[in-house]
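cache lookup: miss for this entity combination. No prior model stored, computing from scratch. Input as submitted by user K.M.:
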Amino acid sequence: MASEKAEMDSLKKECDGLRTQIEAARKAVNDGSMSSAAGSATDVGRVQLKLRKSLKGHLAKIYSMHWATDSRSMVSASQDGKLLVWDTFSGNKMVAVPLKSAWVMSVAFAPSGNLVASGGLDNMCTVYNIKSASPKTLRELDAHTGYLACCRFLSDTEILTASGDTTCCLWDLETGKQKIIFTNHIGDCMSLALSQDERTFVSGACDSLAKLWDLREGTCKQTFSGHTSDINAINFFPSGNAFITGSDDCSCKMYDLRSDQEVIGYQDTSLNAGVTSLALSNSGRLIFAGYDDFNCHIWDSMKGEKVGVLSGHDNRVSCTGVPGDGMGVCTGSWDSFLKLWN
Amino acid sequence: MDEWDVPQMKKEVESLKYQLAFKREKSSKTVTDLVKWIEDGVPEDPFLNPELMKNNPWVEKGKCVLL
Protein backbone atom coordinates (compact mmCIF):
# COMPACT_ATOMS: atom_id res chain seq x y z
CA MET A 1 0.00 0.00 0.00
CA ALA A 2 2.75 2.38 1.05
CA SER A 3 4.84 1.70 -2.06
CA GLU A 4 1.80 2.33 -4.27
CA LYS A 5 1.21 5.66 -2.54
CA ALA A 6 4.85 6.56 -3.02
CA GLU A 7 4.64 5.71 -6.69
CA MET A 8 1.43 7.75 -7.08
CA ASP A 9 3.06 10.72 -5.38
CA SER A 10 6.05 10.54 -7.68
CA LEU A 11 3.83 10.22 -10.77
CA LYS A 12 1.73 13.20 -9.62
CA LYS A 13 4.89 15.23 -9.22
CA GLU A 14 5.94 14.23 -12.70
CA CYS A 15 2.56 15.37 -14.08
CA ASP A 16 2.81 18.71 -12.30
CA GLY A 17 6.30 19.17 -13.68
CA LEU A 18 5.18 18.40 -17.22
CA ARG A 19 2.24 20.81 -16.94
CA THR A 20 4.61 23.56 -15.79
CA GLN A 21 6.85 22.86 -18.78
CA ILE A 22 3.86 23.06 -21.14
CA GLU A 23 2.88 26.44 -19.66
CA ALA A 24 6.44 27.67 -20.12
CA ALA A 25 6.50 26.48 -23.73
CA ARG A 26 3.28 28.42 -24.35
CA LYS A 27 4.65 31.59 -22.79
CA ALA A 28 7.76 31.27 -24.91
CA VAL A 29 5.78 31.53 -28.16
CA ASN A 30 3.30 34.12 -26.93
CA ASP A 31 4.78 37.13 -28.68
CA GLY A 32 1.68 38.49 -30.38
CA SER A 33 -1.88 39.33 -29.44
CA MET A 34 -5.20 39.35 -31.25
CA SER A 35 -5.81 42.97 -30.28
CA SER A 36 -2.62 44.13 -31.98
CA ALA A 37 -3.17 41.95 -35.07
CA ALA A 38 -6.80 43.07 -35.37
CA GLY A 39 -6.10 46.70 -34.55
CA SER A 40 -6.14 47.97 -38.13
CA ALA A 41 -9.19 45.95 -39.21
CA THR A 42 -12.41 47.76 -40.06
CA ASP A 43 -15.19 47.69 -37.49
CA VAL A 44 -18.21 45.58 -38.37
CA GLY A 45 -20.49 48.19 -36.83
CA ARG A 46 -23.77 47.22 -35.23
CA VAL A 47 -25.09 43.87 -36.51
CA GLN A 48 -28.87 44.10 -36.57
CA LEU A 49 -30.67 41.00 -37.73
CA LYS A 50 -34.38 40.56 -38.30
CA LEU A 51 -36.47 37.72 -36.98
CA ARG A 52 -37.63 36.02 -40.20
CA LYS A 53 -39.49 32.99 -38.85
CA SER A 54 -40.62 31.57 -35.54
CA LEU A 55 -41.01 27.81 -35.86
CA LYS A 56 -43.77 26.45 -33.64
CA GLY A 57 -44.23 22.76 -33.13
CA HIS A 58 -42.45 21.48 -30.09
CA LEU A 59 -44.41 21.24 -26.84
CA ALA A 60 -41.53 21.41 -24.40
CA LYS A 61 -37.96 22.70 -24.04
CA ILE A 62 -35.79 22.47 -27.12
CA TYR A 63 -32.35 21.15 -26.26
CA SER A 64 -30.57 20.84 -29.58
CA MET A 65 -30.73 21.62 -33.28
CA HIS A 66 -28.53 20.87 -36.30
CA TRP A 67 -28.56 22.09 -39.92
CA ALA A 68 -28.48 19.69 -42.85
CA THR A 69 -25.75 20.21 -45.43
CA ASP A 70 -28.36 21.53 -47.91
CA SER A 71 -28.67 24.65 -45.71
CA ARG A 72 -32.43 24.25 -45.98
CA SER A 73 -33.45 21.34 -43.74
CA MET A 74 -32.86 21.42 -40.04
CA VAL A 75 -33.55 18.95 -37.23
CA SER A 76 -34.52 19.93 -33.68
CA ALA A 77 -34.89 17.89 -30.49
CA SER A 78 -37.19 18.58 -27.57
CA GLN A 79 -37.96 16.95 -24.28
CA ASP A 80 -41.51 16.59 -25.58
CA GLY A 81 -40.00 13.35 -26.90
CA LYS A 82 -39.79 14.29 -30.57
CA LEU A 83 -37.27 15.13 -33.23
CA LEU A 84 -38.70 17.45 -35.90
CA VAL A 85 -37.16 17.89 -39.33
CA TRP A 86 -38.06 21.31 -40.75
CA ASP A 87 -37.99 22.83 -44.21
CA THR A 88 -36.82 26.28 -43.15
CA PHE A 89 -37.76 27.87 -46.49
CA SER A 90 -41.47 27.13 -46.01
CA GLY A 91 -41.39 26.76 -42.24
CA ASN A 92 -43.11 23.38 -42.60
CA LYS A 93 -42.41 20.25 -40.58
CA MET A 94 -41.29 17.48 -42.92
CA VAL A 95 -40.70 14.57 -40.54
CA ALA A 96 -41.51 13.83 -36.90
CA VAL A 97 -39.48 11.16 -35.14
CA PRO A 98 -41.00 9.88 -31.88
CA LEU A 99 -38.30 9.08 -29.32
CA LYS A 100 -38.24 6.08 -26.97
CA SER A 101 -36.76 8.35 -24.32
CA ALA A 102 -37.96 11.94 -24.04
CA TRP A 103 -34.81 13.06 -22.20
CA VAL A 104 -32.96 14.08 -25.31
CA MET A 105 -29.90 16.34 -25.11
CA SER A 106 -28.42 16.27 -28.58
CA VAL A 107 -29.40 15.79 -32.21
CA ALA A 108 -27.39 15.60 -35.43
CA PHE A 109 -28.03 15.46 -39.18
CA ALA A 110 -25.84 13.19 -41.31
CA PRO A 111 -24.05 14.97 -44.19
CA SER A 112 -26.03 12.81 -46.66
CA GLY A 113 -29.35 14.01 -45.23
CA ASN A 114 -30.52 10.38 -44.95
CA LEU A 115 -29.97 9.91 -41.22
CA VAL A 116 -30.44 11.77 -37.97
CA ALA A 117 -29.13 10.77 -34.54
CA SER A 118 -30.13 11.73 -31.03
CA GLY A 119 -29.51 10.78 -27.42
CA GLY A 120 -29.56 12.04 -23.88
CA LEU A 121 -30.23 10.67 -20.42
CA ASP A 122 -30.81 7.21 -21.86
CA ASN A 123 -26.99 7.06 -22.32
CA MET A 124 -27.56 5.92 -25.90
CA CYS A 125 -27.16 7.39 -29.34
CA THR A 126 -30.01 6.27 -31.61
CA VAL A 127 -29.69 6.63 -35.37
CA TYR A 128 -32.81 6.97 -37.54
CA ASN A 129 -33.32 6.70 -41.28
CA ILE A 130 -35.64 9.59 -42.15
CA LYS A 131 -35.83 8.83 -45.85
CA SER A 132 -37.89 5.66 -45.38
CA ALA A 133 -41.71 5.91 -45.53
CA SER A 134 -41.78 6.45 -41.79
CA PRO A 135 -38.70 7.06 -39.61
CA LYS A 136 -36.93 3.77 -38.93
CA THR A 137 -34.49 3.10 -36.10
CA LEU A 138 -31.25 2.03 -37.75
CA ARG A 139 -29.00 1.55 -34.72
CA GLU A 140 -29.02 1.96 -30.97
CA LEU A 141 -25.46 2.71 -29.85
CA ASP A 142 -25.37 1.53 -26.29
CA ALA A 143 -22.07 1.52 -24.42
CA HIS A 144 -21.66 4.89 -22.73
CA THR A 145 -22.14 4.79 -18.99
CA GLY A 146 -23.26 8.40 -18.83
CA TYR A 147 -25.63 10.71 -20.70
CA LEU A 148 -25.14 11.51 -24.35
CA ALA A 149 -24.32 15.23 -24.50
CA CYS A 150 -23.39 15.61 -28.18
CA CYS A 151 -23.20 13.59 -31.38
CA ARG A 152 -21.87 14.32 -34.89
CA PHE A 153 -21.89 12.15 -38.03
CA LEU A 154 -18.74 11.78 -40.09
CA SER A 155 -20.75 9.91 -42.74
CA ASP A 156 -23.62 7.41 -42.92
CA THR A 157 -21.24 4.81 -41.47
CA GLU A 158 -19.45 6.63 -38.63
CA ILE A 159 -20.56 8.85 -35.78
CA LEU A 160 -18.76 10.61 -32.91
CA THR A 161 -20.34 10.98 -29.48
CA ALA A 162 -19.48 12.96 -26.33
CA SER A 163 -20.75 11.65 -23.00
CA GLY A 164 -21.28 12.48 -19.35
CA ASP A 165 -19.13 9.40 -18.64
CA THR A 166 -16.14 11.70 -19.54
CA THR A 167 -15.34 9.91 -22.79
CA CYS A 168 -15.90 10.57 -26.46
CA CYS A 169 -16.38 7.68 -28.83
CA LEU A 170 -16.13 6.90 -32.55
CA TRP A 171 -18.72 4.32 -33.61
CA ASP A 172 -19.04 2.10 -36.65
CA LEU A 173 -22.67 2.31 -37.76
CA GLU A 174 -22.46 -0.83 -39.85
CA THR A 175 -21.66 -2.98 -36.81
CA GLY A 176 -23.06 -0.74 -34.09
CA LYS A 177 -19.80 -1.15 -32.19
CA GLN A 178 -17.30 1.29 -30.70
CA LYS A 179 -14.22 1.78 -32.87
CA ILE A 180 -12.21 4.15 -30.67
CA ILE A 181 -12.79 5.48 -27.16
CA PHE A 182 -11.19 8.84 -26.35
CA THR A 183 -10.28 9.06 -22.68
CA ASN A 184 -8.47 11.95 -21.05
CA HIS A 185 -11.12 14.37 -19.73
CA ILE A 186 -11.83 14.25 -16.01
CA GLY A 187 -15.30 15.77 -16.27
CA ASP A 188 -18.47 15.16 -18.29
CA CYS A 189 -17.87 15.76 -22.00
CA MET A 190 -20.46 18.29 -23.12
CA SER A 191 -19.69 19.17 -26.70
CA LEU A 192 -17.60 18.25 -29.71
CA ALA A 193 -16.72 19.67 -33.14
CA LEU A 194 -15.11 17.95 -36.13
CA SER A 195 -12.33 19.56 -38.13
CA GLN A 196 -13.04 20.09 -41.81
CA ASP A 197 -10.47 17.49 -42.87
CA GLU A 198 -12.03 15.03 -40.38
CA ARG A 199 -8.63 14.00 -39.03
CA THR A 200 -9.15 15.69 -35.68
CA PHE A 201 -11.92 16.89 -33.42
CA VAL A 202 -12.16 19.10 -30.34
CA SER A 203 -14.17 18.40 -27.19
CA GLY A 204 -15.26 20.64 -24.31
CA ALA A 205 -15.99 19.24 -20.86
CA CYS A 206 -17.06 19.98 -17.31
CA ASP A 207 -13.41 19.83 -16.24
CA SER A 208 -13.26 23.30 -17.92
CA LEU A 209 -10.78 21.98 -20.49
CA ALA A 210 -10.95 21.71 -24.26
CA LYS A 211 -8.98 18.93 -25.96
CA LEU A 212 -7.86 18.29 -29.53
CA TRP A 213 -7.89 14.62 -30.54
CA ASP A 214 -6.46 12.60 -33.41
CA LEU A 215 -9.60 10.87 -34.75
CA ARG A 216 -7.80 7.80 -36.05
CA GLU A 217 -5.07 7.35 -33.41
CA GLY A 218 -7.35 8.07 -30.46
CA THR A 219 -4.74 10.26 -28.79
CA CYS A 220 -5.20 13.61 -27.09
CA LYS A 221 -2.87 15.94 -28.99
CA GLN A 222 -3.39 19.21 -27.13
CA THR A 223 -5.21 20.44 -24.01
CA PHE A 224 -6.48 23.99 -23.62
CA SER A 225 -7.24 25.59 -20.26
CA GLY A 226 -8.48 29.01 -19.18
CA HIS A 227 -12.17 28.54 -18.51
CA THR A 228 -13.20 28.37 -14.89
CA SER A 229 -16.33 26.28 -15.33
CA ASP A 230 -18.02 23.74 -17.62
CA ILE A 231 -17.46 24.20 -21.33
CA ASN A 232 -20.91 23.71 -22.90
CA ALA A 233 -20.24 24.61 -26.50
CA ILE A 234 -17.38 24.27 -28.95
CA ASN A 235 -16.97 25.04 -32.66
CA PHE A 236 -14.08 24.87 -35.08
CA PHE A 237 -13.09 28.11 -36.68
CA PRO A 238 -13.62 27.81 -40.46
CA SER A 239 -9.87 27.86 -41.20
CA GLY A 240 -9.40 24.88 -38.92
CA ASN A 241 -6.52 26.49 -37.02
CA ALA A 242 -8.60 27.74 -34.14
CA PHE A 243 -11.75 26.93 -32.24
CA ILE A 244 -14.22 28.82 -30.04
CA THR A 245 -15.63 27.63 -26.71
CA GLY A 246 -18.58 28.81 -24.61
CA SER A 247 -18.78 28.16 -20.87
CA ASP A 248 -20.84 28.34 -17.69
CA ASP A 249 -18.23 30.91 -16.56
CA CYS A 250 -20.17 33.35 -18.82
CA SER A 251 -17.36 33.76 -21.34
CA CYS A 252 -16.37 32.49 -24.75
CA LYS A 253 -12.77 32.01 -25.80
CA MET A 254 -10.85 31.56 -29.04
CA TYR A 255 -8.02 29.03 -28.83
CA ASP A 256 -5.28 28.92 -31.44
CA LEU A 257 -4.08 25.40 -32.31
CA ARG A 258 -0.69 26.44 -33.69
CA SER A 259 0.52 28.41 -30.66
CA ASP A 260 -1.38 26.03 -28.37
CA GLN A 261 -3.19 28.68 -26.29
CA GLU A 262 -6.05 31.08 -25.82
CA VAL A 263 -5.69 34.18 -28.00
CA ILE A 264 -8.77 36.18 -27.05
CA GLY A 265 -11.68 36.02 -24.63
CA TYR A 266 -15.22 37.30 -25.02
CA GLN A 267 -16.80 38.51 -21.79
CA ASP A 268 -18.65 41.49 -20.47
CA THR A 269 -19.37 42.53 -16.89
CA SER A 270 -23.01 43.05 -17.82
CA LEU A 271 -23.28 39.45 -19.01
CA ASN A 272 -23.80 37.24 -15.99
CA ALA A 273 -25.29 34.24 -17.69
CA GLY A 274 -23.70 31.00 -18.82
CA VAL A 275 -23.06 30.32 -22.49
CA THR A 276 -25.07 27.35 -23.71
CA SER A 277 -24.29 27.23 -27.41
CA LEU A 278 -22.42 28.97 -30.18
CA ALA A 279 -22.12 29.23 -33.95
CA LEU A 280 -19.84 31.13 -36.31
CA SER A 281 -20.52 33.12 -39.46
CA ASN A 282 -18.78 31.77 -42.58
CA SER A 283 -15.76 34.08 -42.33
CA GLY A 284 -15.49 33.45 -38.61
CA ARG A 285 -15.77 37.18 -37.97
CA LEU A 286 -19.05 36.87 -36.06
CA ILE A 287 -19.78 34.59 -33.12
CA PHE A 288 -23.42 33.90 -32.27
CA ALA A 289 -23.49 32.79 -28.63
CA GLY A 290 -26.63 31.60 -26.87
CA TYR A 291 -26.89 32.45 -23.18
CA ASP A 292 -29.00 31.55 -20.14
CA ASP A 293 -30.23 35.18 -20.17
CA PHE A 294 -32.69 34.29 -22.99
CA ASN A 295 -30.61 36.10 -25.61
CA CYS A 296 -28.15 35.25 -28.33
CA HIS A 297 -25.33 37.80 -28.24
CA ILE A 298 -23.22 38.52 -31.31
CA TRP A 299 -19.48 39.05 -30.87
CA ASP A 300 -16.84 40.43 -33.23
CA SER A 301 -14.36 37.55 -33.00
CA MET A 302 -11.37 39.73 -33.89
CA LYS A 303 -12.01 42.79 -31.76
CA GLY A 304 -13.61 40.97 -28.86
CA GLU A 305 -16.58 43.33 -28.73
CA LYS A 306 -20.31 42.68 -28.53
CA VAL A 307 -21.83 43.91 -31.79
CA GLY A 308 -25.42 42.79 -31.59
CA VAL A 309 -28.09 40.78 -29.81
CA LEU A 310 -30.94 38.51 -30.88
CA SER A 311 -33.77 39.02 -28.42
CA GLY A 312 -37.12 37.36 -28.59
CA HIS A 313 -37.00 34.10 -26.73
CA ASP A 314 -38.88 33.77 -23.44
CA ASN A 315 -36.44 31.34 -21.92
CA ARG A 316 -32.84 30.15 -22.13
CA VAL A 317 -31.35 29.90 -25.64
CA SER A 318 -30.17 26.28 -25.63
CA CYS A 319 -28.89 25.84 -29.18
CA THR A 320 -27.60 27.92 -32.06
CA GLY A 321 -26.61 27.04 -35.60
CA VAL A 322 -25.51 28.68 -38.84
CA PRO A 323 -26.18 26.67 -42.03
CA GLY A 324 -23.35 25.81 -44.43
CA ASP A 325 -24.21 28.62 -46.85
CA GLY A 326 -23.92 31.12 -43.99
CA MET A 327 -27.22 32.79 -44.90
CA GLY A 328 -28.56 33.19 -41.37
CA VAL A 329 -28.65 31.84 -37.87
CA CYS A 330 -31.13 29.63 -36.03
CA THR A 331 -31.69 29.84 -32.28
CA GLY A 332 -33.58 27.22 -30.28
CA SER A 333 -34.88 27.75 -26.79
CA TRP A 334 -36.41 26.26 -23.67
CA ASP A 335 -39.44 28.35 -24.66
CA SER A 336 -40.10 25.59 -27.29
CA PHE A 337 -39.54 27.83 -30.31
CA LEU A 338 -36.89 27.94 -32.99
CA LYS A 339 -36.21 31.31 -34.55
CA LEU A 340 -34.51 32.11 -37.82
CA TRP A 341 -32.64 35.41 -38.13
CA ASN A 342 -30.72 37.20 -40.85
CA MET B 1 -7.97 12.42 -10.67
CA ASP B 2 -8.05 11.57 -6.98
CA GLU B 3 -9.65 8.22 -7.75
CA TRP B 4 -7.04 7.26 -10.36
CA ASP B 5 -4.81 4.23 -9.91
CA VAL B 6 -1.16 3.83 -10.92
CA PRO B 7 -1.79 2.65 -14.50
CA GLN B 8 -4.10 5.63 -15.15
CA MET B 9 -1.57 8.04 -13.69
CA LYS B 10 1.16 6.51 -15.88
CA LYS B 11 -1.08 7.05 -18.92
CA GLU B 12 -1.53 10.69 -17.91
CA VAL B 13 2.26 11.12 -17.70
CA GLU B 14 2.65 9.63 -21.19
CA SER B 15 -0.11 11.88 -22.54
CA LEU B 16 1.46 14.99 -21.02
CA LYS B 17 4.89 14.08 -22.45
CA TYR B 18 3.27 13.71 -25.88
CA GLN B 19 1.44 17.03 -25.52
CA LEU B 20 4.60 18.80 -24.34
CA ALA B 21 6.43 17.67 -27.51
CA PHE B 22 4.03 19.60 -29.78
CA LYS B 23 5.83 22.10 -32.01
CA ARG B 24 4.29 25.42 -30.98
CA GLU B 25 4.48 28.34 -33.41
CA LYS B 26 4.92 32.00 -32.48
CA SER B 27 1.53 33.64 -31.88
CA SER B 28 2.70 36.79 -33.71
CA LYS B 29 2.61 34.66 -36.87
CA THR B 30 -0.38 32.45 -36.10
CA VAL B 31 -2.68 35.27 -34.99
CA THR B 32 -1.70 37.36 -38.01
CA ASP B 33 -2.61 34.38 -40.22
CA LEU B 34 -5.96 33.98 -38.43
CA VAL B 35 -6.79 37.67 -38.91
CA LYS B 36 -5.85 37.51 -42.59
CA TRP B 37 -8.00 34.41 -43.05
CA ILE B 38 -11.02 36.16 -41.52
CA GLU B 39 -10.55 39.35 -43.51
CA ASP B 40 -10.22 37.38 -46.75
CA GLY B 41 -13.51 35.64 -45.94
CA VAL B 42 -15.54 38.75 -45.06
CA PRO B 43 -16.58 39.57 -48.67
CA GLU B 44 -18.09 36.06 -48.94
CA ASP B 45 -19.83 36.26 -45.55
CA PRO B 46 -23.58 36.93 -46.06
CA PHE B 47 -23.83 38.57 -42.63
CA LEU B 48 -21.20 41.13 -43.58
CA ASN B 49 -21.80 41.59 -47.30
CA PRO B 50 -25.41 42.74 -47.90
CA GLU B 51 -25.08 41.95 -51.64
CA LEU B 52 -25.05 38.25 -50.77
CA MET B 53 -28.22 38.53 -48.68
CA LYS B 54 -30.24 39.91 -51.62
CA ASN B 55 -31.74 36.49 -52.33
CA ASN B 56 -32.85 35.87 -48.78
CA PRO B 57 -34.15 32.29 -48.51
CA TRP B 58 -36.23 33.11 -45.43
CA VAL B 59 -38.13 36.06 -46.88
CA GLU B 60 -41.21 35.54 -49.04
CA LYS B 61 -40.67 36.56 -52.63
CA GLY B 62 -43.65 37.87 -54.54
CA LYS B 63 -46.96 38.80 -53.00
CA CYS B 64 -48.54 35.67 -51.58
CA VAL B 65 -47.64 32.08 -50.84
CA LEU B 66 -50.28 29.45 -51.60
CA LEU B 67 -50.57 27.13 -48.61
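stored under new cache key. The first helix of chain A runs from residue 2 to 29.
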